[in-house]
Amino acid sequence: MVIQLFGHPFSSYTWKALIPLYENETPFEFRELGPDYADNGAELARRWPVAKFPLLTDGDETVMETTSIVEYLDAVHPGATRFIPDDAAVAREVRMLDRIFDNYMMGPMQAVVGEHLPFITERPDLARVARARGALDTIYTWLDARMAGREWAVGDGFTLADCAAAPSLFYADWVHPNDGRFPHLSAYRARLLARPSVARCVNEARPYRSIFPLGAPDRD
Fold it and tell me: Among 72, 73, 130, 179, which residue has the least CB neighbours within 10 Å?
């Protein structure tokens, strides 16, 4: 049976699952979620009552959570790009950076976005927004120093950590631009966006930019 991925083209975590599929040209069917795709939503809920996405199905296998999806693909459907290095110490660092991007960049970025969603709050809590922006500055500073002299997040190859970094850095720079303050991080973001698998996600998400609650900037 063909792999199926349930998600939305504008979703940052959906990107994280799409990138490894595109990297290795793994055959799959994309099951888009939204008001026009009720059957896909019903199947998602049947497979996973929490109904959070992305979700990957592979025959009888159902895999939730993006990190687990990338690890599953690397183990069960490996390709030329390996996302978890064989070296245990390097693999541990890859997993650490994966969590850092998800928790300390994606987390505060989504906190700012959440404060601008009318179904969550009538008006942004400026103190919460300021705290989230401060958290982004902190992780920008740490990552900028780390990325000096590096091409990818860990080691010499494109890994799970970079799959997490791409959507995190893309949307975080929309929410809280680094404005040239962090040149190593900016250069890393540019390398990620030039990667064909990431560029494909960016292009497929373009039609949905109008739904970005802060107003999508006129740039990638």
Answer: 179
Q: How far apart are CA 123 and CA 163, in angstroms?
A: 33
Q: Which amino acid is at 91?
A: A
Residue 108 CA to residue 88 CA, distance in Å, equals 30
Q: How far is CA 22 from CA 43, 197, 201, 208, in A?
A: 23, 5, 9, 20
**Can you tell me whether residue 11 is helix, strand or coil?**
coil
In the block, which residue shows the tokens 């792999």? 3
Q: Report pTM.
A: 0.95
**CA 212/CA 114 separation, integer angstroms:** 11
Distance CA 115, CA 124 (A): 5
* Residue 185 identity (one-letter amino acid): L
| Pick from 25, 5, 7, 6: nearest CA to 200 | 25
Q: What angle do CA 31, 52, 98 make, to 5 degrees?
A: 100
